[in-house]
Amino acid sequence: MRARGLLIATALVSSILGAVVAYLVLTVPNDLESAALMKQAKRAIDAGQNERARDALSKIVQQYPRTDAAAAATVALVRLADADRARLARDVAALRSEVESQKAQLGTVSHTVGEIKSAPPPQPAAAPAPPPARKKKTVHHTKHRKRRR
After folding, report:
1. Within-domain flag for 129
2. pLDDT confidence of 88, banded at 50, 70, 90?
3. Disulfide: which of 8, 18, 19, 52 matches 44 by Cβ 3.0-4.6 Å?
């Protein structure tokens, strides 16, 4: 009986040990690969290559969903999206202010054109006096000789 209990205890311990080893064998390489991808994504973010970083982070979340790197990648993706949204909001605000200033300039120009259009036409300036006419020189005819043919 004692051997039977010892055999059962040994079987339980080896089953637990086998499960732990199987878990480590299956998860440790995934953790290492996902951590390496996460480092690449961080380098890409630091270099300002957001598209490359976004691709690497998405790959981590899709291929290694149950790792710590997947959780960190999800957070990084959310931060990238927030940064993009903030940048777009700044760009839209700048464009709106530029459009408003252009509208103001257009309003000023159209007002000026309206004033010019409604104003009476200017009186023509006095035309300069024509230059005095030159006297024709009188041609004195001298005796003409008749030609002989």
Report:
1. no
2. very high
3. 52
Q: 92-102 pLDDT, tens per residue?
A: 999 999 999 99
> Any idea what DSSP says for residue 119?
S
What is the spatial distance between Cα 132 and Cα 137, in angstroms, rounded to a whole number? 15
pLDDT in tens, 20-51: 877 766 666 777 888 888 999 999 989 989 89
Identify whether 21 is part of a domain.
Answer: yes
Maximum Cα–Cα distance for the chain, whole Å? 173
Token code pair at residue 37? 């991808």
Distance CA 14, CA 8 (A): 10
Question: How many domains are there within the chain?
Answer: 1
SS3 content of the chain, % helix, strand, coil (to 5): 75, 0, 25
